[in-house]
Specification:
Strand order of the largest sheet: 14-13-11-15
Order of helices and strands: EEEEEEHHEEHHEEEHEEEEE
Helix content: 10-25%
Shape: globular
Number of helices: 5
Structural class: alpha+beta
Radius of gyration: 20 Å
Number of strands: 16
Largest sheet: 4 strands, mixed
Length: about 375
């Protein structure tokens, strides 16, 4: 059919030999019917519904720390220039053209924000995350093509997206084979009801939306990095390299990041010793002393996503401190407002995603929360 496939909603009843469980799965499918494209672990995952009452007012949190940022746990990235964008044949069209960028110096967190850090924020502010709020259809439908029918109210519940490994080889163009919309999944229960973060204080916080990341950053007196700042930091001072550590393939030598090793999404041989998330700082840092700039979890950036953005800013003289496009646009989901995410996750590997390349650009809606999506902060 020469049209966009709209949202498919399905309720799945799953049974366990120990305990029956009702799992609500909402699969958001927005698929342009052009020739098949290379599959990717982020570009075709469903987007999280926007919650009731979520607006800029939610971000009006205490700001007394804004001019007193504590740089403990951060490193300084010096001002300088670098070539931003595609480095090898795995690059996608939105990574071109490679262009000259100059950024001012900035502080950046050594690691992704942890569960312990986020919990401190929640206790101090009483903040309620996107995944803990009931979705609002009036907001959700703004991301959908006109005429999209409202789903049953029983499906519009506080929930988020979790990774469910397949038991066998599946069609990698159908992300519903490994993503499930679970009621009760949130940062305290990242894999859904029955999961928790006890003993995982030093793991990256996940199931956080862009709004949640901005709120934490504001409270901490920091902000989210621009996409240019993130890539400069990830490169660690190396020029025109594919990964934060250089050009050695992720599968060669000692494990360098938490990634999917084996046949996605059903077999992970765990050469890096982790199946799901890893504690922060589990692998060697890059040249700036930053951990997990590749793998573990995707990281939110401040920038809106536009697939043609690099083409609009590239010029021989270069560009200084780019802030991202003024308008979001993703041809795969033209009605959705999306932000850039960077760095790859524990679900990425070369045959499927290669998200841990320093130039790899990904995107998702601002209200999305997932089991492999977190963030880190910067400050001036």
């Amino acid at each position: 059919m020469n049209k966009i496939v709209l949202i498919l909603f399905s309720v799945m009843w799953l049974a366990s030999c120990k305990q029956p469980e009702k799992q609500v799965e909402v699969i958001a499918v927005a698929q342009a019917h052009s020739p098949k494209k290379k599959v990717c672990c982020e570009s075709n995952i469903p987007n999280r519904f926007k919650p009731v009452g979520l607006s800029n007012a939610v971000l009006a949190l205490p700001d007394e720390n804004e001019t007193h940022t504590n740089h403990a746990g951060m490193v300084w990235v010096p001002a300088g220039s670098f070539r931003m964008g595609a480095d090898n044949q795995q690059a996608e069209p939105d990574e071109y053209p490679k262009h000259n960028v100059t950024v001012n110096g900035f502080w950046i967190d050594k690691t992704e924000v942890t569960n312990a850090q986020f919990e401190k924020f929640v206790k101090a502010t009483g903040y309620i995350t996107t995944a803990e709020r009931k979705p609002d259809w009036n907001e959700l439908k703004k991301q959908m093509p006109p005429g999209t029918e409202k789903p049953a109210d029983s499906l519009l519940v506080a929930a988020s997206l979790v990774f469910v490994p397949a038991s066998h080889e599946v069609n990698l163009n159908d992300y519903s084979q490994w993503w499930a919309w679970k009621a009760g999944a949130n940062w305290k229960h990242p894999h859904g009801p029955g999961s928790n973060i006890k003993g995982k204080e030093n793991y990256p916080v996940v199931q956080v939306s862009w709004f949640d990341a901005v709120a934490y950053s504001k409270w901490a007196g920091k902000r989210l990095p621009t996409e240019a700042e993130w890539e400069r930091a990830a490169r660690g001072g190396l020029e025109d390299k594919i990964y934060p550590w250089g050009n050695q393939k992720v599968s060669e030598g000692l494990p360098k990041a938490n990634t999917w090793e084996g046949s996605f999404p059903y077999k992970n041989i765990q050469r890096d010793h982790y199946y799901y998330l890893a504690p922060v700082s589990s692998f060697a840092p890059n040249g700036y002393g930053l951990y997990d700039m590749a793998g573990n979890v995707w990281e939110w950036c401040a920038d809106l996503y536009n697939n043609n953005y690099y083409k609009t800013i590239s010029n021989p003289a270069g560009i200084k401190n780019p802030q991202g496009p003024g308008k979001s646009y993703d041809p795969d989901e033209p009605y959705a407002i999306k932000r850039v995410v960077r760095g790859g996750s524990f679900l990425c590997n070369d045959s499927y995603c290669s998200g841990y390349r320093v130039s790899r650009r990904m995107k998702t809606t601002e209200d999305s929360g997932m089991e492999h999506l977190g963030f880190r902060c910067v400050s001036n």
